[in-house]
Amino acid sequence: MNTSLGQPNFIAIGFFVVFISMTLGITWYAARKTKTTSEFFTAGGGISAAQNGFALAGDFMSAASFLGIAGLVATSGFDGLIYSVGWLVGWPIVTFLVAEPLRNLGRFTFADVVAARLQQKPVRIASSIGTLTVISFYLIAQMVGAGNLVRMLFGIPYEGAVVAVGAVMLIYVLFGGMIATTWVQIIKAILLLGGATLLAVLSLARFGFNPLALFDAAAQKYGAEVLAPGKLVSSPIEAVSLGLALMFGTAGLPHILMRFYTVPDARAARKSVVYATGLIGAFYLVTFILGFAASVIVGRDAIKAVDAGGNMAAPLLAEAVGGTPFLGFISAVAFATILAVVAGLTLSGAAALAHDLWTHVVRNGKADEREQMRVARVSSAVLGVVAVVQGLVFKGQNVAFMVGLAFAIAASANLPVLLLSMLWKRFTTRGAVASVVTGTLSSLILITLSPTIWVDVLKHSEAIFPLKNPAIVSMPLSFLIGILVSYTAREPAAEAQFAEVTRKMELGSRA
């Protein structure tokens, strides 16, 4: 297939300019309203349930969703759907277990909830380690997708593309904070869902608007196994481990948890999850269609020739069914997707550094507003540089898989300590620290020893740990260690506050 990817696309550039101009205008407006740490990190709690639902969807529908899943389905067939299903079914867990208690107990980060009745310093240090580790892995996927996309559209080197994306994202975060980030995410969610739906409709038009005809064409071209599981994940244990990471990791993602502080109350937090779940579910159905359509209309060889990881399947499909103008629009939408998610990730990382580590650990809760804002902005800049460096180091990885690893760490390091602190009276500070450290280290060690790193990157002949995703081991281990360490010594002060914290968790801080 002849493609204009890799050549400067002036239509795409035009869409880029429009989007960036519009969002910079929002950032200018938001900067005038962002004077306090509450406004910087959580928009002052003034976001409505519907707005937050769209922003949650915008935060969650990342480059991995749009570029990565479409690429996985296009190159691997049915198995690419495991990521869509795994991510979607995590939202009921967020709705029923996390959203309301988090909003009632916390202020800026999920560490606020864990520290509600446990010792502040050790808990916040441990929680920050889990948060920053998850964010680091998640940023890899976004920056790799951004670099590939901008390189293809502008014809500039990958390295320059990554730096440019990092610079634009930092403008949003440094000056507009959560208010600007929220509106960028809302606009991005509308554009992404609309653009992906239009792309799916144009693709299905070639098959009489019949998805079954599309699947039949894929089976004729690549064999019936393209519609059966086992091509991407052949081991049942591997499938369960990946599913656990995707499902439970959603409830441990720092940038998702942080969004529940932007709404005025717990009821709005629950409603925002309902809005987000509907939007995300519709989007994942569309990406499944896009993946199969790309494999049939564009072809796997053509997709891999442009990008070995398959991440350009959706833009190539857009060019095939709508020409260069539609390629420009879809690419601009993908660019908006990456910017919005990277901004959200950076903001949540800055909250961990400024609110948890600096304010509560270094300054013992005595930092004034001006100092906290200064540290928050410096932290954002540092994380922006880290994001750029990671994008350069991990060039060429499939972005959906990299996000899968981030979810495994979130499910192992963050979710166990969050649930145990809210639901178990005997949970102690030592148990919390041990749980986070165990979840983080076991995830990282097992990922390093897995086929992904040990074989594919380090070029050893055989992996020490056989599974690509470690959640089936690391998540239960984190729960177990947290429980066992808590049983070694009681913490009377924490137990005494359990009833009060539970009341606030269920009824709100004013109850």
Descriptive account of the structure:
The protein is mostly helical. It has one domain: Sodium/glucose cotransporter, CATH 1.20.1730.10. 77% of the residues lie in helices and 0% in strands. The model has no long low-confidence stretch (mean pLDDT 84).
Helices and strands, with pairings:
Elements: H1 10-33, H2 37-42, H3 49-60, H4 63-76, H5 81-105, H6 111-114, H7 120-154, H8 158-204, H9 211-222, H10 236-249, H11 254-257, H12 266-298, H13 300-306, H14 313-362, H15 369-393, H16 399-423, H17 429-449, H18 451-455, H19 471-488, H20 492-496, H21 498-507
Short recap of the structure:
With 511 residues, this protein is an all-alpha fold. The protein has helices at residues 10-33, 37-42, 49-60, 63-76, 81-105, 111-114, 120-154, 158-204, 211-222, 236-249, 254-257, 266-298, 300-306, 313-362, 369-393, 399-423, 429-449, 451-455, 471-488, 492-496, 498-507.
* Number of helices, counting only DSSP H or I runs of 4 residues or more: 21
Percent helix range: over 70%
Taking Cα atoms only, what radius of gyration do you get, to the nearest Å?
A: 22 Å
* H and E order: HHHHHHHHHHHHHHHHHHHHH
The count of β-strands is: 0
CATH superfamily: Sodium/glucose cotransporter
Level-1 CATH class name: Mainly Alpha
Taking all residues together, what is the mean pLDDT? 84
Terminus-to-terminus distance: 64 Å
Number of domains: 1
How much beta, percentage-wise? under 5%
pLDDT < 50 stretches: none
Task: Give the overall silhouette.
Answer: globular
What would you call the structural class?
mainly alpha
Name of the CATH architecture = Up-down Bundle
